[in-house]
Amino acid sequence: MKTTFALSALLAGSAAAFAPAPMQKTTTSLNYDAVDELPGALAPIGLFDPLGFAEKADGPTLKRYREAELQHGRVGMLASVGFLVGEKVEGSSFLFDASIKGPAITHLSQVPDGFWALLIIAIGALETRRAEVGWVSPADLAPDSPGTLREDYTPGNIGFDPLGLKPDTEEELLIMQTKELQNGRLAMLAAAGFMAQELTDGKGILEHLGL
Q1: 42: number of Cβ within 10 Å
Q2: Is the peptide bond before 44 cis (omega within 30 degrees of 0)?
Q3: Spatial distance between the Cα atoms of 24 and 192, rounded to a whole number of angstroms
Q4: For residue 92, what pLDDT is reported?
Q5: What is the pTM of this model?
Q6: What's the CA dihedral at 38, 72, 181, 88 to 10 degrees?
Q7: 190 CB-near residues (< 8 Å, 6+ apart)
């Protein structure tokens, strides 16, 4: 069961690919050459970039960095929840005959082989669709310009908002984008911490917490 939730985290992070909601082209007013004005930059520090990735990148490159950060952050948030929920309901799920047990990092090795094929196909389809939405077709690019995002594409905006949470004003949207980035950054660190801890002593996270 833990595996199911961890894998669900991976799939849900890309779920927008099959969103039934209509895709709307949105032109962002974000300036990727003014890094301290981007979502995620908070006073008084501004954009936290101790290794100087942002100052070494041009606008299109920084836009790709932001797309990658958002996607990994979303997966991290779902994975963190998956670790905890999966370990909480282990042995009591109807999935896989409730046979998957132990620390969450061991779940992938316990699922049937056929599940791997379904997982690879699903993730491949989702990521292909996401690439079609956000990236310029390689056929329209010069050989020295691979991986270019569309000019009218806002990183992370893949048209999936079934609950209608996206704010109507630019100011409120900036606040929400910053919240998502901050939570995603924390979740990536949390998921990495969960994996490191379980690899260290072979115990589940909830077991450490006494839950």
Answers
A1: 13
A2: yes
A3: 34
A4: 72
A5: 0.77
A6: 180
A7: 76, 80
